[in-house]
TrEMBL record:
Enzyme class, first EC level, given as a word: oxidoreductase
Residue stretches making up the NADPH-dependent FMN reductase-like domain: 6-155
Record keywords: Flavoprotein, FMN, Oxidoreductase
Enzyme Commission code(s) on record: 1.5.1.-
Organism of this sequence: Streptomyces litchfieldiae
Highest classification ranks of the organism: Bacteria, Bacillati, Actinomycetota, Actinomycetes, Kitasatosporales
Protein name in UniProt: FMN reductase
GO molecular function, one term: oxidoreductase activity
Amino acid sequence: MTTHRLAVVTAGLGRPSATRLLADRLTEATGRQLADGGRESAPMVIELRELATDIAAHLVTGFPAPALRDAIEAVGDADGVIAVTPVFAASYSGLFKSFFDLLDPDALTGTPVLIAATGGTARHSLALEHAMRPLFAYLHATVVPTAVFAAAEDWGTGADARTATLPARIDRAAAEFAALLPAGRPGRPTRQAETVVPFAEQLAALRPD
């Protein structure tokens, strides 16, 4: 049975988090779609709130902490990525953008990406199209046609014409995402082990003999 490696990147700040909840729903729906086709998924959830300090340090030092390095490598090695962010000021969160700024520009080339977002009202849903989709297009990813936005009312217990559509949108996006997932990425070069030269050795190399 083919197993697809999925990186699930969620930028929710709270706990519990509507952003994480949406990421979990999309991951579960993708798993069902793959199972229906005789495939399975191996998701790795990356909670950016737990990496916030490491991300900030990497931006100013250029050196990732081990946990952040593992997260970056997991995204680069994944067969597909589910990326979910809260919407602040009509765009993705700064934490979300900072993480993807750390990826190699070619890390997501050809990788299927399912984009999703959460926000207080449905008025923020355009952030998916004017912010998130261009970001992943710039990274040369293959972005799933259906993007999923969940407003606060979508999590209500009383279904109406709007809230009742969230499960259907999740299932549609998951089906499109599963259809794009390859058996693997044979054309991607093998990752080379990173060599870290101690700072003392770097200084010694600069000193004249």
